Fold:
Amino acid sequence: MLNRAIYTLFSLICISTPHCSNFSNYRARFHMPGGTENLFYSFDLGPIHFVAFSTELYYFLHYGLKSLVSQYEWLVRDLETANRPENRKARPWIITFAHRPMYCSNNNGNDCSKHETVVRTGLPVLHMFGLEQLFYEQGVDVAIWAHEHCYERLWPIYDYKVFNGSLAAPYRNPRAPVHIITGSAGNKEGREPFFKVLPKWSAFHSQDFGYTRLKAYNGTHLYFEQVSDDKDGQIIDAFWVVKDKHGSYVEE
Structure:
């Protein structure tokens, strides 16, 4: 009840505060699908429902909370709609993509290297608008991130616990979302360092500049591969995500 009251108060404050309207330059200069002021949107492609959103809204709160509240409400509605039986049957896969990751093993002091990542658990103290629980409940299959200048593949994970499908086939019927960080396209700031002792949930990592390819074969099989530019196009990582059914992990 307290969280709901605070949430309502945030909404009222943002409606009545002119400076809550932020990122106006970006909104004016770019056009994205969906009619949601360019900061968040979704689209369908083949068997996949793609969901894009802004993690920056969690970190630039001096502009106000209106955009964050609006985005969170939109995300809930969009994922609930995508999970309707007829929609999940037509597009079984739900893949999200955004900038700042929930998890990372980079030794650079970024938020994703901390335990209570803002995107994962929500705003400090209040723990509101966190996305990990929402993604878990709504059965997000894969979460793709950037920001870190590296490539990192995680085991299926929820609340820092690994939920592999099995020991022999960790990505077959995983019991939590699969996270991939693919921010290695190149930059002037250099490569990100990793922790000397990597956490158990980190399955593969690389500092090579490169890019990730995704192939959706059908409603049961996704194929990912990481291409290294440093190694002249060599595939340095490849894996399948295979699911016999899609939906909330809570039911499992």
Q: What stands out?
A: The longest strand covers residues 234-242. The chain has six helices and twelve strands. Helices lie at 2-16, 24-29, 66-82, 85-90, 118-121, 132-137.
